[in-house]
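Running co-folding for magnesium ion.
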Amino acid sequence: FERMALKRGLFVVIEGADGTGKSTQVLNLTKRLQSEGYPCSSMRFPDRSTQIGGMIDSYLQCKSNLSDESVHLLFSANRWELKNQITNTLASGTSIICDRYAFSGVAYTSSKPGFSLCWCMGPDRGLPKPDLVLYLHASEKLAQSRSNYGTERYEKREFQNKVAEMFEEIRAVDKTLTWTDYTVERGIDEVTDDLFGILQKELNSNLVKEVGKLWM
Ligand code: TMP
Ligand code: MG
């Protein structure tokens, strides 16, 4: 009688520009996975609940100013402070659906003048590597129709266009990552159904390989 190796959780990151509905989908997908019997929890970056997250929150709401370099490092530190939580959760067999990750970190800072992709990627090298990145696209009109769009730093059209360009560059750098594009054109529940369908195949595969290290 051979004991089956414990299947680890799947690490899924949802990325996209502001206003694509990522947060809603992360929450709905997590509930959907749980209800279908897959242990699952959600995370988000920035995680504004920590001390570092509080500094980031204040910066995003334009209540404080930080140099572009230092806020970039804070965003990265916010991921590193939750690294053990990520690896422990996955090891226990629970999947993670994560709202933004290092790809946002690099896309947003490298959209500012004078920042190279290489410099921006540095601090996040070695973080737990996602098994799948779901990249949500939405029309500008849809993004801007979101009730609170435009209230935070970065929520401006030209900047968002640059961010979208940078996401394309970032994915081209590392071909070992699996990116899946999805264009948000349907209602919230239909989108959740579609995304769940994309994840199902991966969830049913026997994930015994260890979690990788990002960009290493
Ligand atoms: P949120 O709206 O998903 O809470 O994200 C807040 C903003 O922070 C959003 O405009 C994207 C930006 N961001 C970065 O600039 N760097 C990062 O590392 C992350 C995770 C988000
Ligand atoms: Mg936002």
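Result summary
The longest helix spans residues 157-173.
The two ends are 38 Å apart (CA to CA).
Job closed.
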